[in-house]
Protein backbone atom coordinates (compact mmCIF):
# COMPACT_ATOMS: atom_id res chain seq x y z
CA UNK A 1 0.00 0.00 0.00
CA UNK A 2 0.90 3.59 -0.60
CA UNK A 3 2.06 5.95 2.14
CA UNK A 4 1.27 9.08 0.14
CA UNK A 5 -1.38 11.22 1.83
CA UNK A 6 -3.65 13.31 -0.37
CA UNK A 7 -5.95 15.92 1.23
CA UNK A 8 -9.70 15.30 1.14
CA UNK A 9 -10.18 18.23 -1.24
CA UNK A 10 -7.40 18.90 -3.68
CA UNK A 11 -7.05 22.26 -5.46
CA UNK A 12 -7.32 22.22 -9.24
CA UNK A 13 -4.09 21.58 -11.21
CA UNK A 14 -4.00 25.21 -12.34
CA UNK A 15 -4.42 26.45 -8.76
CA UNK A 16 -1.56 24.16 -7.71
CA UNK A 17 0.55 25.41 -10.62
CA UNK A 18 -0.11 28.99 -9.57
CA UNK A 19 0.86 28.27 -5.96
CA UNK A 20 4.09 26.61 -7.14
CA UNK A 21 4.87 29.65 -9.25
CA UNK A 22 4.42 31.76 -6.12
CA UNK A 23 6.76 29.46 -4.21
CA UNK A 24 9.46 30.28 -6.80
CA UNK A 25 8.79 34.03 -6.89
CA UNK A 26 10.93 36.79 -5.39
CA UNK A 27 13.92 36.34 -3.12
CA UNK A 28 14.41 32.73 -1.93
CA UNK A 29 12.11 29.80 -2.49
CA UNK A 30 9.22 28.61 -0.39
CA UNK A 31 10.30 24.98 -0.03
CA UNK A 32 7.55 24.19 2.48
CA UNK A 33 4.93 25.22 -0.07
CA UNK A 34 6.53 23.01 -2.74
CA UNK A 35 6.42 20.05 -0.36
CA UNK A 36 2.89 20.78 0.78
CA UNK A 37 1.71 20.63 -2.82
CA UNK A 38 3.81 18.08 -4.72
CA UNK A 39 4.35 15.84 -1.67
CA UNK A 40 0.60 15.30 -1.41
CA UNK A 41 -0.55 14.67 -4.98
CA UNK A 42 -0.99 11.42 -6.94
CA UNK A 43 0.97 10.67 -10.12
CA UNK A 44 -2.04 11.53 -12.29
CA UNK A 45 -2.46 14.84 -10.48
CA UNK A 46 1.24 15.71 -10.65
CA UNK A 47 1.08 15.11 -14.41
CA UNK A 48 -1.90 17.45 -14.65
CA UNK A 49 -0.05 20.09 -12.60
CA UNK A 50 2.94 19.87 -14.96
CA UNK A 51 0.61 20.33 -17.92
CA UNK A 52 -1.19 23.27 -16.31
CA UNK A 53 2.13 24.86 -15.34
CA UNK A 54 3.46 24.51 -18.87
CA UNK A 55 0.27 25.94 -20.35
CA UNK A 56 0.22 28.97 -18.07
CA UNK A 57 3.93 29.85 -17.84
CA UNK A 58 5.25 28.24 -21.03
CA UNK A 59 8.00 26.60 -18.97
CA UNK A 60 8.57 23.02 -17.85
CA UNK A 61 7.83 22.71 -14.13
CA UNK A 62 10.86 20.43 -13.75
CA UNK A 63 13.10 23.13 -15.28
CA UNK A 64 11.69 25.75 -12.92
CA UNK A 65 12.22 23.46 -9.93
CA UNK A 66 15.75 22.77 -11.11
CA UNK A 67 16.50 26.49 -10.97
CA UNK A 68 15.02 26.99 -7.52
CA UNK A 69 16.14 24.07 -5.37
CA UNK A 70 19.23 21.92 -5.15
CA UNK A 71 21.01 18.94 -3.66
CA UNK A 72 19.21 15.91 -2.23
CA UNK A 73 16.01 17.89 -1.84
CA UNK A 74 16.01 18.73 -5.53
CA UNK A 75 16.67 15.14 -6.56
CA UNK A 76 13.82 13.90 -4.36
CA UNK A 77 11.35 16.49 -5.68
CA UNK A 78 12.32 15.99 -9.34
CA UNK A 79 12.22 12.19 -9.19
CA UNK A 80 8.93 12.27 -7.33
CA UNK A 81 7.33 14.73 -9.75
CA UNK A 82 8.06 12.49 -12.75
CA UNK A 83 5.56 9.84 -13.87
CA UNK A 84 6.50 6.40 -12.47
CA UNK A 85 7.54 5.03 -15.89
CA UNK A 86 9.44 8.22 -16.77
CA UNK A 87 11.17 8.13 -13.39
CA UNK A 88 12.26 4.54 -13.86
CA UNK A 89 13.46 5.30 -17.39
CA UNK A 90 15.49 8.21 -16.02
CA UNK A 91 16.96 6.10 -13.18
CA UNK A 92 17.72 3.26 -15.60
CA UNK A 93 19.49 5.62 -17.97
CA UNK A 94 21.56 7.09 -15.14
CA UNK A 95 22.44 3.56 -14.00
CA UNK A 96 23.46 2.56 -17.52
CA UNK A 97 25.60 5.63 -18.13
CA UNK A 98 27.44 5.24 -14.83
CA UNK A 99 27.23 1.50 -14.78
CA UNK A 100 29.32 -0.49 -12.32
CA UNK A 101 28.75 -4.05 -11.09
CA UNK A 102 27.45 -2.96 -7.68
CA UNK A 103 24.60 -0.92 -9.15
CA UNK A 104 21.23 -2.59 -8.50
CA UNK A 105 18.92 -0.08 -10.14
CA UNK A 106 18.46 -2.00 -13.39
CA UNK A 107 17.71 -5.19 -11.47
CA UNK A 108 15.14 -3.40 -9.30
CA UNK A 109 13.37 -1.91 -12.28
CA UNK A 110 13.44 -5.18 -14.22
CA UNK A 111 12.42 -7.48 -11.37
CA UNK A 112 10.41 -5.53 -8.79
CA UNK A 113 7.96 -3.94 -11.23
CA UNK A 114 5.02 -5.69 -12.89
CA UNK A 115 5.37 -6.79 -16.53
CA UNK A 116 3.13 -3.96 -17.66
CA UNK A 117 5.07 -1.41 -15.60
CA UNK A 118 8.38 -2.61 -17.03
CA UNK A 119 7.00 -2.31 -20.53
CA UNK A 120 5.82 1.24 -19.75
CA UNK A 121 9.40 2.02 -18.67
CA UNK A 122 10.67 0.73 -22.03
CA UNK A 123 8.17 2.97 -23.82
CA UNK A 124 9.16 5.98 -21.69
CA UNK A 125 12.82 5.19 -22.41
CA UNK A 126 12.16 5.34 -26.18
CA UNK A 127 10.35 8.65 -25.80
CA UNK A 128 13.02 10.29 -23.66
CA UNK A 129 16.31 8.84 -24.88
CA UNK A 130 15.57 7.95 -28.51
CA UNK A 131 17.01 4.50 -27.96
CA UNK A 132 15.74 1.28 -26.41
CA UNK A 133 16.51 0.39 -22.81
CA UNK A 134 17.90 -3.02 -23.76
CA UNK A 135 20.05 -1.42 -26.44
CA UNK A 136 21.73 0.85 -23.91
CA UNK A 137 22.07 -1.91 -21.32
CA UNK A 138 23.64 -4.22 -23.92
CA UNK A 139 26.02 -1.52 -25.13
CA UNK A 140 27.17 -0.37 -21.67
CA UNK A 141 27.56 -3.64 -19.77
CA UNK A 142 29.79 -6.61 -20.42
CA UNK A 143 30.37 -10.25 -19.64
CA UNK A 144 28.12 -12.09 -17.21
CA UNK A 145 26.31 -8.89 -16.19
CA UNK A 146 25.26 -8.28 -19.77
CA UNK A 147 24.10 -11.89 -20.09
CA UNK A 148 21.90 -11.36 -17.06
CA UNK A 149 20.73 -7.77 -17.43
CA UNK A 150 19.69 -7.71 -21.09
CA UNK A 151 17.10 -10.52 -20.76
CA UNK A 152 15.94 -9.14 -17.39
CA UNK A 153 15.14 -5.68 -18.76
CA UNK A 154 13.62 -7.19 -21.94
CA UNK A 155 11.30 -9.59 -20.11
CA UNK A 156 7.55 -9.52 -20.36
CA UNK A 157 6.76 -12.20 -17.80
CA UNK A 158 3.47 -14.01 -17.69
CA UNK A 159 1.66 -12.68 -14.64
CA UNK A 160 -1.08 -14.99 -13.45
CA UNK A 161 -0.80 -17.32 -10.49
CA UNK A 162 -0.85 -20.64 -12.39
CA UNK A 163 2.12 -22.80 -11.49
CA UNK A 164 3.47 -25.92 -13.19
CA UNK A 165 4.80 -28.02 -10.30
CA UNK A 166 6.54 -30.59 -12.49
CA UNK A 167 8.42 -27.79 -14.15
CA UNK A 168 9.21 -26.20 -10.76
CA UNK A 169 10.80 -29.46 -9.62
CA UNK A 170 12.84 -30.04 -12.75
CA UNK A 171 14.05 -26.44 -12.84
CA UNK A 172 14.86 -26.43 -9.12
CA UNK A 173 17.06 -29.48 -9.79
CA UNK A 174 18.62 -27.76 -12.74
CA UNK A 175 19.37 -24.66 -10.63
CA UNK A 176 20.84 -26.79 -7.86
CA UNK A 177 23.06 -28.60 -10.33
CA UNK A 178 24.39 -25.35 -11.78
CA UNK A 179 24.86 -23.68 -8.39
CA UNK A 180 26.58 -26.74 -6.89
CA UNK A 181 28.89 -26.77 -9.89
CA UNK A 182 29.55 -23.03 -9.43
CA UNK A 183 28.18 -22.44 -12.96
CA UNK A 184 26.48 -19.24 -11.81
CA UNK A 185 26.51 -17.69 -15.26
CA UNK A 186 25.08 -20.80 -16.96
CA UNK A 187 22.58 -19.92 -19.65
CA UNK A 188 19.89 -22.16 -18.14
CA UNK A 189 20.15 -20.43 -14.79
CA UNK A 190 19.79 -17.03 -16.44
CA UNK A 191 17.04 -18.29 -18.76
CA UNK A 192 14.94 -19.52 -15.81
CA UNK A 193 15.45 -16.34 -13.81
CA UNK A 194 14.75 -14.03 -16.75
CA UNK A 195 11.78 -15.70 -18.41
CA UNK A 196 9.62 -17.62 -15.92
CA UNK A 197 6.64 -15.96 -14.25
CA UNK A 198 7.14 -14.74 -10.70
CA UNK A 199 4.63 -17.28 -9.36
CA UNK A 200 6.48 -20.08 -11.16
CA UNK A 201 9.83 -18.88 -9.78
CA UNK A 202 8.48 -18.75 -6.23
CA UNK A 203 7.33 -22.38 -6.62
CA UNK A 204 10.73 -23.36 -8.03
CA UNK A 205 12.63 -21.67 -5.18
CA UNK A 206 10.30 -23.23 -2.57
CA UNK A 207 10.95 -26.67 -3.99
CA UNK A 208 14.69 -25.91 -4.04
CA UNK A 209 14.57 -25.00 -0.36
CA UNK A 210 12.55 -28.10 0.60
CA UNK A 211 14.59 -30.52 -1.45
CA UNK A 212 18.12 -29.25 -0.94
CA UNK A 213 17.92 -27.80 2.57
CA UNK A 214 19.01 -24.25 1.81
CA UNK A 215 17.33 -21.35 0.06
CA UNK A 216 18.68 -20.52 -3.40
CA UNK A 217 19.96 -17.24 -2.05
CA UNK A 218 21.82 -18.92 0.79
CA UNK A 219 23.56 -21.18 -1.74
CA UNK A 220 24.35 -18.10 -3.84
CA UNK A 221 26.07 -16.47 -0.88
CA UNK A 222 29.18 -18.64 -0.93
CA UNK A 223 31.40 -15.71 -1.91
CA UNK A 224 30.04 -12.47 -0.38
CA UNK A 225 32.49 -10.34 -2.37
CA UNK A 226 31.35 -11.63 -5.77
CA UNK A 227 29.24 -8.86 -7.32
CA UNK A 228 27.65 -11.16 -9.89
CA UNK A 229 26.37 -13.46 -7.16
CA UNK A 230 25.07 -10.39 -5.34
CA UNK A 231 23.25 -9.34 -8.51
CA UNK A 232 21.61 -12.77 -8.82
CA UNK A 233 20.51 -12.62 -5.19
CA UNK A 234 19.12 -9.11 -5.69
CA UNK A 235 17.11 -10.27 -8.72
CA UNK A 236 15.68 -13.20 -6.75
CA UNK A 237 14.77 -10.98 -3.80
CA UNK A 238 13.14 -8.37 -6.05
CA UNK A 239 11.08 -11.14 -7.67
CA UNK A 240 10.06 -12.99 -4.50
CA UNK A 241 10.23 -10.47 -1.64
CA UNK A 242 10.35 -6.92 -3.01
CA UNK A 243 9.42 -5.38 0.37
CA UNK A 244 12.27 -7.16 2.14
CA UNK A 245 14.62 -6.22 -0.67
CA UNK A 246 13.73 -2.52 -0.45
CA UNK A 247 13.86 -2.56 3.34
CA UNK A 248 17.44 -3.74 3.09
CA UNK A 249 18.33 -1.03 0.58
CA UNK A 250 16.94 1.58 2.99
CA UNK A 251 18.69 -0.01 5.97
CA UNK A 252 22.06 -0.07 4.22
CA UNK A 253 21.54 3.50 3.00
CA UNK A 254 20.87 4.72 6.55
CA UNK A 255 23.31 2.53 8.47
CA UNK A 256 26.35 3.11 6.32
CA UNK A 257 29.16 5.37 7.46
CA UNK A 258 27.68 8.04 5.19
CA UNK A 259 23.96 8.03 4.46
CA UNK A 260 23.46 7.02 0.81
CA UNK A 261 20.91 9.66 -0.07
CA UNK A 262 20.45 8.53 -3.68
CA UNK A 263 19.42 5.03 -2.63
CA UNK A 264 17.11 6.37 0.07
CA UNK A 265 15.54 8.88 -2.32
CA UNK A 266 15.10 6.22 -5.00
CA UNK A 267 13.25 3.77 -2.77
CA UNK A 268 11.04 6.40 -1.13
CA UNK A 269 10.06 8.08 -4.41
CA UNK A 270 9.50 4.86 -6.37
CA UNK A 271 7.58 3.06 -3.61
CA UNK A 272 5.55 5.85 -1.92
CA UNK A 273 2.60 5.25 -4.23
CA UNK A 274 3.06 1.45 -4.37
CA UNK A 275 4.14 -0.52 -1.32
CA UNK A 276 6.11 1.79 0.97
CA UNK A 277 3.67 1.00 3.80
CA UNK A 278 4.69 -2.68 3.73
CA UNK A 279 8.36 -1.76 3.39
CA UNK A 280 8.06 0.53 6.44
CA UNK A 281 6.43 -2.32 8.38
CA UNK A 282 9.26 -4.70 7.50
CA UNK A 283 11.69 -1.95 8.47
CA UNK A 284 10.12 -1.46 11.88
CA UNK A 285 10.15 -5.21 12.57
CA UNK A 286 13.72 -5.63 11.47
CA UNK A 287 15.16 -2.53 13.16
CA UNK A 288 12.85 -2.07 16.17
CA UNK A 289 12.39 1.52 15.09
CA UNK A 290 9.80 3.21 12.86
CA UNK A 291 11.23 4.16 9.48
CA UNK A 292 10.26 7.81 9.98
CA UNK A 293 12.39 7.98 13.15
CA UNK A 294 15.35 6.55 11.30
CA UNK A 295 14.88 9.09 8.53
CA UNK A 296 14.53 11.96 11.01
CA UNK A 297 17.75 10.86 12.66
CA UNK A 298 19.65 10.65 9.41
CA UNK A 299 18.47 13.51 7.22
CA UNK A 300 17.82 17.21 7.71
CA UNK A 301 15.96 20.21 6.39
CA UNK A 302 13.81 20.25 3.29
CA UNK A 303 15.11 16.87 2.18
CA UNK A 304 13.96 15.33 5.45
CA UNK A 305 10.61 17.10 5.18
CA UNK A 306 10.07 15.84 1.65
CA UNK A 307 10.84 12.21 2.54
CA UNK A 308 8.58 12.39 5.58
CA UNK A 309 5.77 13.87 3.48
CA UNK A 310 6.04 10.92 1.06
CA UNK A 311 5.99 8.59 4.06
CA UNK A 312 2.68 10.18 5.06
CA UNK A 313 4.27 11.79 8.16
CA UNK A 314 4.56 15.35 9.39
CA UNK A 315 8.10 16.71 9.61
CA UNK B 1 -0.06 -1.73 -49.08
CA UNK B 2 -2.83 -4.19 -48.50
CA UNK B 3 -4.30 -6.36 -51.26
CA UNK B 4 -7.49 -7.10 -49.33
CA UNK B 5 -10.59 -5.83 -51.13
CA UNK B 6 -13.54 -4.74 -49.03
CA UNK B 7 -16.90 -3.97 -50.76
CA UNK B 8 -18.11 -0.37 -50.75
CA UNK B 9 -20.98 -1.27 -48.44
CA UNK B 10 -20.34 -4.00 -45.91
CA UNK B 11 -23.22 -5.83 -44.17
CA UNK B 12 -23.41 -5.51 -40.39
CA UNK B 13 -21.39 -8.01 -38.34
CA UNK B 14 -24.57 -9.79 -37.27
CA UNK B 15 -25.76 -10.09 -40.90
CA UNK B 16 -22.36 -11.54 -41.80
CA UNK B 17 -22.53 -13.93 -38.84
CA UNK B 18 -26.00 -15.06 -39.98
CA UNK B 19 -24.79 -15.66 -43.54
CA UNK B 20 -21.84 -17.67 -42.24
CA UNK B 21 -24.21 -19.77 -40.15
CA UNK B 22 -26.21 -20.40 -43.34
CA UNK B 23 -23.02 -21.45 -45.12
CA UNK B 24 -22.52 -24.16 -42.47
CA UNK B 25 -26.19 -25.35 -42.45
CA UNK B 26 -27.58 -28.57 -43.92
CA UNK B 27 -25.67 -31.01 -46.08
CA UNK B 28 -22.26 -29.77 -47.19
CA UNK B 29 -20.78 -26.35 -46.68
CA UNK B 30 -21.02 -23.27 -48.87
CA UNK B 31 -17.29 -22.53 -49.13
CA UNK B 32 -17.81 -19.79 -51.71
CA UNK B 33 -20.02 -17.91 -49.26
CA UNK B 34 -17.39 -18.23 -46.50
CA UNK B 35 -14.76 -16.78 -48.83
CA UNK B 36 -17.05 -14.03 -50.11
CA UNK B 37 -17.58 -12.87 -46.53
CA UNK B 38 -14.38 -13.47 -44.54
CA UNK B 39 -12.07 -12.98 -47.54
CA UNK B 40 -13.36 -9.41 -47.89
CA UNK B 41 -13.42 -8.02 -44.36
CA UNK B 42 -10.83 -6.06 -42.37
CA UNK B 43 -9.34 -7.37 -39.10
CA UNK B 44 -11.58 -5.08 -37.04
CA UNK B 45 -14.63 -6.29 -38.91
CA UNK B 46 -13.69 -9.97 -38.65
CA UNK B 47 -13.32 -9.49 -34.89
CA UNK B 48 -16.80 -7.95 -34.77
CA UNK B 49 -18.21 -10.86 -36.80
CA UNK B 50 -16.67 -13.36 -34.36
CA UNK B 51 -18.26 -11.47 -31.47
CA UNK B 52 -21.66 -11.29 -33.18
CA UNK B 53 -21.47 -14.99 -34.09
CA UNK B 54 -20.64 -15.91 -30.52
CA UNK B 55 -23.44 -13.76 -29.15
CA UNK B 56 -26.07 -15.19 -31.48
CA UNK B 57 -25.09 -18.87 -31.61
CA UNK B 58 -23.13 -19.23 -28.37
CA UNK B 59 -20.34 -20.90 -30.30
CA UNK B 60 -16.87 -19.74 -31.34
CA UNK B 61 -16.84 -19.02 -35.07
CA UNK B 62 -13.40 -20.63 -35.33
CA UNK B 63 -14.77 -23.85 -33.80
CA UNK B 64 -17.68 -23.88 -36.23
CA UNK B 65 -15.32 -23.33 -39.16
CA UNK B 66 -13.09 -26.09 -37.87
CA UNK B 67 -16.03 -28.52 -38.04
CA UNK B 68 -17.04 -27.50 -41.55
CA UNK B 69 -13.89 -27.16 -43.60
CA UNK B 70 -10.54 -28.90 -43.70
CA UNK B 71 -7.01 -29.08 -45.06
CA UNK B 72 -5.15 -26.10 -46.49
CA UNK B 73 -8.39 -24.20 -47.02
CA UNK B 74 -9.25 -24.54 -43.34
CA UNK B 75 -5.80 -23.38 -42.23
CA UNK B 76 -5.97 -20.35 -44.52
CA UNK B 77 -9.47 -19.37 -43.32
CA UNK B 78 -8.68 -19.90 -39.63
CA UNK B 79 -5.38 -18.04 -39.70
CA UNK B 80 -6.92 -15.22 -41.67
CA UNK B 81 -9.91 -14.90 -39.34
CA UNK B 82 -7.69 -14.43 -36.28
CA UNK B 83 -6.54 -10.97 -35.20
CA UNK B 84 -3.01 -10.21 -36.50
CA UNK B 85 -1.42 -10.42 -33.03
CA UNK B 86 -3.36 -13.58 -32.14
CA UNK B 87 -2.38 -15.13 -35.48
CA UNK B 88 1.29 -14.39 -34.91
CA UNK B 89 1.07 -15.75 -31.36
CA UNK B 90 -0.50 -18.93 -32.72
CA UNK B 91 2.13 -19.28 -35.47
CA UNK B 92 4.94 -18.60 -32.99
CA UNK B 93 3.61 -21.23 -30.61
CA UNK B 94 3.37 -23.77 -33.41
CA UNK B 95 6.93 -22.93 -34.46
CA UNK B 96 8.20 -23.29 -30.90
CA UNK B 97 6.47 -26.62 -30.25
CA UNK B 98 7.77 -28.11 -33.51
CA UNK B 99 10.97 -26.18 -33.49
CA UNK B 100 13.78 -27.11 -35.85
CA UNK B 101 16.69 -24.98 -37.05
CA UNK B 102 15.20 -24.39 -40.50
CA UNK B 103 12.04 -22.81 -39.16
CA UNK B 104 11.95 -19.07 -39.89
CA UNK B 105 8.59 -18.17 -38.36
CA UNK B 106 10.00 -16.80 -35.09
CA UNK B 107 12.50 -14.67 -36.98
CA UNK B 108 9.78 -13.30 -39.25
CA UNK B 109 7.56 -12.37 -36.33
CA UNK B 110 10.42 -10.87 -34.34
CA UNK B 111 12.05 -8.93 -37.19
CA UNK B 112 9.46 -8.12 -39.86
CA UNK B 113 6.83 -6.66 -37.52
CA UNK B 114 6.96 -3.22 -35.90
CA UNK B 115 7.98 -2.94 -32.25
CA UNK B 116 4.40 -2.27 -31.23
CA UNK B 117 3.11 -5.23 -33.27
CA UNK B 118 5.69 -7.57 -31.73
CA UNK B 119 4.68 -6.42 -28.27
CA UNK B 120 1.01 -7.07 -29.14
CA UNK B 121 2.03 -10.62 -30.14
CA UNK B 122 3.66 -11.08 -26.72
CA UNK B 123 0.46 -9.89 -25.05
CA UNK B 124 -1.67 -12.21 -27.17
CA UNK B 125 0.72 -15.06 -26.34
CA UNK B 126 0.17 -14.49 -22.60
CA UNK B 127 -3.59 -14.47 -23.08
CA UNK B 128 -3.72 -17.62 -25.18
CA UNK B 129 -0.93 -19.82 -23.86
CA UNK B 130 -0.58 -18.68 -20.23
CA UNK B 131 3.15 -18.32 -20.66
CA UNK B 132 5.43 -15.74 -22.21
CA UNK B 133 6.70 -16.05 -25.75
CA UNK B 134 10.33 -15.65 -24.71
CA UNK B 135 9.86 -18.26 -21.99
CA UNK B 136 8.70 -20.85 -24.53
CA UNK B 137 11.36 -19.89 -27.05
CA UNK B 138 14.07 -20.15 -24.38
CA UNK B 139 12.77 -23.50 -23.15
CA UNK B 140 12.40 -25.12 -26.59
CA UNK B 141 15.49 -23.95 -28.42
CA UNK B 142 19.16 -24.54 -27.66
CA UNK B 143 22.66 -23.33 -28.36
CA UNK B 144 23.31 -20.54 -30.82
CA UNK B 145 19.68 -20.45 -31.93
CA UNK B 146 18.56 -19.74 -28.39
CA UNK B 147 21.19 -17.03 -28.05
CA UNK B 148 19.76 -15.38 -31.17
CA UNK B 149 16.03 -16.04 -30.88
CA UNK B 150 15.37 -15.07 -27.25
CA UNK B 151 16.65 -11.48 -27.61
CA UNK B 152 15.00 -11.17 -31.03
CA UNK B 153 11.52 -12.06 -29.75
CA UNK B 154 12.05 -9.94 -26.58
CA UNK B 155 13.12 -6.82 -28.43
CA UNK B 156 11.30 -3.52 -28.30
CA UNK B 157 13.39 -1.60 -30.82
CA UNK B 158 13.44 2.14 -31.01
CA UNK B 159 11.49 3.05 -34.14
CA UNK B 160 12.28 6.53 -35.37
CA UNK B 161 14.55 7.35 -38.26
CA UNK B 162 17.40 8.99 -36.29
CA UNK B 163 20.73 7.38 -37.09
CA UNK B 164 24.07 7.67 -35.29
CA UNK B 165 26.62 7.44 -38.10
CA UNK B 166 29.65 7.14 -35.82
CA UNK B 167 28.00 4.18 -34.15
CA UNK B 168 27.07 2.68 -37.54
CA UNK B 169 30.74 2.82 -38.59
CA UNK B 170 32.10 1.32 -35.38
CA UNK B 171 29.50 -1.44 -35.32
CA UNK B 172 29.98 -2.22 -39.02
CA UNK B 173 33.68 -2.72 -38.23
CA UNK B 174 32.81 -4.88 -35.27
CA UNK B 175 30.49 -7.01 -37.41
CA UNK B 176 33.14 -7.34 -40.09
CA UNK B 177 35.71 -8.43 -37.53
CA UNK B 178 33.41 -11.10 -36.11
CA UNK B 179 32.26 -12.35 -39.51
CA UNK B 180 35.82 -12.45 -40.90
CA UNK B 181 36.84 -14.45 -37.85
CA UNK B 182 33.86 -16.80 -38.36
CA UNK B 183 32.59 -15.81 -34.88
CA UNK B 184 29.02 -15.82 -36.13
CA UNK B 185 27.56 -16.51 -32.69
CA UNK B 186 29.59 -13.76 -31.00
CA UNK B 187 27.56 -11.91 -28.41
CA UNK B 188 28.32 -8.53 -29.93
CA UNK B 189 27.03 -9.62 -33.32
CA UNK B 190 23.79 -10.86 -31.73
CA UNK B 191 23.54 -7.80 -29.49
CA UNK B 192 23.74 -5.43 -32.45
CA UNK B 193 21.22 -7.40 -34.50
CA UNK B 194 18.76 -7.82 -31.63
CA UNK B 195 18.80 -4.39 -30.02
CA UNK B 196 19.56 -1.63 -32.55
CA UNK B 197 16.74 0.19 -34.31
CA UNK B 198 16.01 -0.87 -37.87
CA UNK B 199 17.10 2.52 -39.22
CA UNK B 200 20.38 2.21 -37.32
CA UNK B 201 20.95 -1.33 -38.64
CA UNK B 202 20.29 -0.25 -42.23
CA UNK B 203 22.94 2.47 -41.79
CA UNK B 204 25.37 -0.04 -40.28
CA UNK B 205 24.86 -2.55 -43.11
CA UNK B 206 25.22 0.18 -45.74
CA UNK B 207 28.52 1.26 -44.25
CA UNK B 208 29.61 -2.40 -44.11
CA UNK B 209 28.85 -2.78 -47.80
CA UNK B 210 30.65 0.45 -48.76
CA UNK B 211 33.68 -0.19 -46.60
CA UNK B 212 34.25 -3.92 -47.04
CA UNK B 213 32.99 -4.48 -50.60
CA UNK B 214 30.33 -7.10 -49.83
CA UNK B 215 26.93 -6.96 -48.22
CA UNK B 216 26.74 -8.47 -44.74
CA UNK B 217 24.46 -11.17 -46.10
CA UNK B 218 26.91 -12.07 -48.84
CA UNK B 219 29.63 -12.50 -46.22
CA UNK B 220 27.24 -14.61 -44.15
CA UNK B 221 26.68 -16.94 -47.09
CA UNK B 222 30.05 -18.68 -46.92
CA UNK B 223 28.48 -21.99 -45.93
CA UNK B 224 25.04 -22.32 -47.56
CA UNK B 225 24.23 -25.45 -45.53
CA UNK B 226 24.74 -23.80 -42.14
CA UNK B 227 21.26 -23.20 -40.71
CA UNK B 228 22.48 -20.67 -38.15
CA UNK B 229 23.99 -18.51 -40.88
CA UNK B 230 20.72 -18.84 -42.79
CA UNK B 231 18.84 -17.66 -39.68
CA UNK B 232 21.11 -14.60 -39.37
CA UNK B 233 20.56 -13.77 -43.04
CA UNK B 234 16.79 -14.17 -42.63
CA UNK B 235 16.79 -11.80 -39.65
CA UNK B 236 18.76 -9.21 -41.61
CA UNK B 237 16.46 -9.51 -44.62
CA UNK B 238 13.32 -9.25 -42.45
CA UNK B 239 14.75 -6.10 -40.86
CA UNK B 240 16.01 -4.40 -44.03
CA UNK B 241 13.94 -5.78 -46.92
CA UNK B 242 10.81 -7.52 -45.62
CA UNK B 243 9.10 -7.49 -49.04
CA UNK B 244 12.08 -9.19 -50.70
CA UNK B 245 12.26 -11.66 -47.85
CA UNK B 246 8.59 -12.61 -48.15
CA UNK B 247 8.79 -12.80 -51.95
CA UNK B 248 11.50 -15.39 -51.55
CA UNK B 249 9.44 -17.40 -49.06
CA UNK B 250 6.55 -17.44 -51.55
CA UNK B 251 8.87 -18.28 -54.47
CA UNK B 252 10.46 -21.19 -52.61
CA UNK B 253 7.04 -22.41 -51.47
CA UNK B 254 5.74 -22.44 -55.04
CA UNK B 255 8.87 -23.61 -56.86
CA UNK B 256 9.75 -26.55 -54.64
CA UNK B 257 9.10 -30.11 -55.74
CA UNK B 258 5.99 -29.99 -53.56
CA UNK B 259 4.23 -26.71 -52.92
CA UNK B 260 4.78 -25.72 -49.28
CA UNK B 261 1.22 -24.69 -48.53
CA UNK B 262 1.91 -23.68 -44.92
CA UNK B 263 4.53 -21.15 -45.93
CA UNK B 264 2.34 -19.80 -48.72
CA UNK B 265 -0.68 -19.54 -46.42
CA UNK B 266 1.39 -17.86 -43.72
CA UNK B 267 2.74 -15.12 -45.96
CA UNK B 268 -0.58 -14.43 -47.71
CA UNK B 269 -2.61 -14.30 -44.48
CA UNK B 270 -0.10 -12.25 -42.50
CA UNK B 271 0.67 -9.77 -45.29
CA UNK B 272 -2.69 -9.31 -47.08
CA UNK B 273 -3.59 -6.39 -44.85
CA UNK B 274 -0.07 -5.00 -44.63
CA UNK B 275 2.29 -5.10 -47.62
CA UNK B 276 1.23 -7.96 -49.90
CA UNK B 277 0.88 -5.49 -52.77
CA UNK B 278 4.59 -4.64 -52.60
CA UNK B 279 5.49 -8.32 -52.17
CA UNK B 280 3.42 -9.20 -55.27
CA UNK B 281 5.22 -6.46 -57.23
CA UNK B 282 8.61 -7.82 -56.22
CA UNK B 283 7.38 -11.29 -57.15
CA UNK B 284 6.29 -10.19 -60.61
CA UNK B 285 9.62 -8.45 -61.25
CA UNK B 286 11.65 -11.38 -60.02
CA UNK B 287 9.64 -14.16 -61.74
CA UNK B 288 8.23 -12.40 -64.82
CA UNK B 289 4.80 -13.65 -63.78
CA UNK B 290 2.03 -12.12 -61.67
CA UNK B 291 1.80 -13.75 -58.25
CA UNK B 292 -1.88 -14.61 -58.86
CA UNK B 293 -0.93 -16.64 -61.96
CA UNK B 294 1.67 -18.57 -60.01
CA UNK B 295 -0.87 -19.28 -57.28
CA UNK B 296 -3.50 -20.35 -59.82
CA UNK B 297 -0.98 -22.73 -61.36
CA UNK B 298 0.03 -24.24 -58.05
CA UNK B 299 -3.12 -24.50 -55.93
CA UNK B 300 -6.67 -25.66 -56.51
CA UNK B 301 -10.25 -25.44 -55.30
CA UNK B 302 -11.37 -23.48 -52.27
CA UNK B 303 -7.80 -23.01 -51.06
CA UNK B 304 -6.88 -21.34 -54.33
CA UNK B 305 -10.05 -19.22 -54.22
CA UNK B 306 -9.29 -18.07 -50.66
CA UNK B 307 -5.69 -17.06 -51.48
CA UNK B 308 -6.82 -15.20 -54.58
CA UNK B 309 -9.51 -13.39 -52.60
CA UNK B 310 -6.86 -12.20 -50.13
CA UNK B 311 -4.73 -11.10 -53.08
CA UNK B 312 -7.67 -8.96 -54.23
CA UNK B 313 -8.23 -11.18 -57.28
CA UNK B 314 -11.20 -13.15 -58.58
CA UNK B 315 -10.74 -16.94 -58.69
From TrEMBL, chains A, B:
The keyword Transport does not apply. Keywords: Annexin, Calcium, Calcium/phospholipid-binding, Metal-binding, Repeat. GO terms for biological process: response to cold; response to heat; response to salt stress; response to water deprivation. One of its GO terms (cellular component) is plasma membrane. Pfam families: Annexin (PF00191). Gene3D superfamilies: Annexin. GO terms for molecular function: calcium ion binding; calcium-dependent phospholipid binding; phosphatidylserine binding. Ca(2+) 1 binds at residues 24, 26, 28, 68, 254, 299, 304. SMART domains: ANX. Ca(2+) 3 binds at residue 298. InterPro entries: Annexin (IPR001464), Annexin_repeat (IPR018502), Annexin_sf (IPR037104), AnnexinD_plant (IPR009118). This is Annexin D1-like. It comes from Phoenix dactylifera. The gene is LOC103707899.
